Amino acid sequence: MIEEISYEGIWWLPAKPEDQITGTLRFNQDKGANLDLIGSFVDHFEPGPITGKAFEADIILGKSANGKDITLYRCFETHSKTSFPGMTTSSLFAHAVFIGAHFDDAEKITFNRLSVRFTNLDEWVNVSGFNIKYDHKYRRVSVEHTIPDSITTTINSLKISLEFSRKGPGFTAVQKEASIKQEAFIRLEQDKPKPISDWTKLLYRFENFLALGTAEPTYPISVEGYNNKIVEKISEKEYPKSISIYYQLIGDPLKVKTKLPYDMFFTYKDIADRFEICLNSWFNKLEELEPVYDLYFGTLYNPHMYLDQRFLNLIQAIESYHRRMISNTELSEEDHKQRIDSILDVAPTEHSNWLKQILRYSNEPTLNKRLLDVLTLHNSAIKKFINKKKSFARKIVSTRNYFIHYDKSLAKEAARGRDLFNLTEKLDILLQICLLTELEFTPEAINAIVQKHSLKRIIED
Among 2.60.120, 2.30.30, 3.40.710, 2.40.10, what is the CATH number of 5-106? Predict the structure, then answer.
């Protein structure tokens, strides 16, 4: 999907296949999918919800010059020009491109299976099918490759497999070299076909799982979809047809660093014996932890975020984690009601409504209490980089309140410069510890990860 593609062909709307327009489809990650037409669909103009005014269509179908069926999804016109004398030209943007099939209705864009390659997936899996031997005496080298076995697990109705493929070796008239390339990919499969929107959500969840493991933003490199009702014949047998899927990503996958397994938080081999447990925890806790995930990965995928904003994102994530996974009340509901009633009984009547609003959330723990709870829960892992929990929590609260409320009385207590950097790095490590705990990593494994990968990020005084 990160490759650039270009297809010349003819294009039409599903309702009017006889009105065909010549044009060229281009896709790259910088500009997304754009269709340049010698002509315009403006004669079929119907204002819609995407732009409100310009021409738009849920579906545009096409046939490339080399015979490929193409479907463009959620399209709208970005430019139109008529020359006198001359002709009309127009350009449209498409949110997604499907190459290999025609879907004449948006509701029909469904798949039973997706095969996806991700950045750094090969390195994260780190399973090799190669056997290379050198025989210096006879000046011989032998290279054998066996495609590794699939690794499969099931989460609810979703089947997830780590699969492997091989490219090469090729043969030439003058054989000067031979190359074999092994590639790992993820196969996601369900018995019932699901719309593309459901599949993209699943991809997003899995790529975040990989991003946590690799400690690096993760993006899909290629996406192939399969619908059991769209088939092709190969050697007289019918197989689901591969449909290439393209859509613009937020971020730049071409700038992702290739990381070696040693530099990752955890790899497949680290969780091989409980791969299913980790994935089940990740997916099944999504509803509870989604706001925490969003805040954490929001910082990971935005390395140029201002330091104070990164600090605020991380403290909000830890606060949300405590609220959802530890506790969100200090007293029982009955005791809290009694406390409020006793306060309102002695308060002036004219202030009672105002006071009720003030006391509405008074049973929630303070940020300081939440931080101390999280620090205590993960005491064995944090003691290597946080010596004094109370002063650490107090510093965070003062800094957060200064940034949010601009309380000038806290100006001297708020962290800045190197202190703010270190405080933010420690919050990041603390949040990573929380997420690894939810994946059911043992305290010993978490301690090893913190010692190996995290402590070097903190600038010593």
Answer: 2.40.10
